Amino acid sequence: MALATFGAGCFWGVEYFFREINGVSNATCGYMGGKDSATTYKEVKSGATGHAEVVQVEFDPEVVSYNELLEVFWKNHNPTTLNMQGGDIGTQYRSTIFFHDKEQKAQAETSKLALARSGKWSQRHIVTEVVPLQTFHVAEDYHQNYLEKNNLPTCHLVY
């Protein structure tokens, strides 16, 4: 099994679309990228900690590739909006890829460049960060599988 970590706005929707992929065994909501160890939802939501809401994806690379996960990431959020997705505004909702190794970094940067050159977002600049993995803080239990637990539809738009 391998790990990948993505931030694309509210982690409930991000978790939802990664859980739907064959080869993904788990998707866990959490926080990453902050300047201190304060990791409660209330603290992160304030925007003061610098953490992003992220989902750590556990996947079988024999079934689904990291590049395929990147494709899902790009399709399920707007990578051109700085520090926001839809009505969620703040650095905690930024578009970010936390790479786990050099290979993931290269693949993430290559896919970002390919998306920029594709013309899909020709009127806008892709602001997605590609940054090294930092400490992953698992979100509170009530955030895990939130949409399914509460019988809610995904909160993300497909792009």
Structure description:
The protein has 159 residues and is of the alpha+beta class. It has 5 helices and 8 strands, in the order E-H-E-H-E-H-E-E-E-H-E-E-H. The strands form 2 sheets. The protein has a 6-stranded mixed β-sheet, with helices on one face. The protein has a two-stranded antiparallel ribbon with strand order 4-5. The longest helix is centred in the last third of the chain and has 17 residues, at 102-118. It is globular. The chain starts with a strand and ends in a 10-residue tail after the last helix.
Concise overview:
The chain is α+β, with helices and mostly antiparallel strands.
Secondary structure: elements and pairs:
Blueprint: E1 2-8, H1 11-19, E2 24-32, H2 41-45, E3 52-59, H3 66-75, E4 84-85, E5 88-89, E6 95-99, H4 102-118, E7 129-132, E8 137-138, H5 146-149
Parallel strand pairs: 6-7
Antiparallel strand pairs: 1-3, 1-6, 2-3, 2-8, 4-5
Helix pairs in contact: 3-4
Considering the chains and any ligands shown, give keywords for the structure.
Peptide methionine sulfoxide reductase MsrA; 25% strand; oxidoreductase; EC 1.8.4.11; alpha+beta; 8 strands; two-stranded antiparallel sheet; globular
Largest sheet: 6 strands, mixed
Number-wise, the strands total: 8
Secondary structural class:
alpha+beta
Spans of at least 5 consecutive residues whose pLDDT stays below 50 are: none
Query: How are strands sequenced across the largest beta sheet?
Result: 7-6-1-3-2-8
The average pLDDT score comes to: 91
Number of helical regions: 5
Radius of gyration equals: 14 Å
How far from one another are the termini?
28 Å
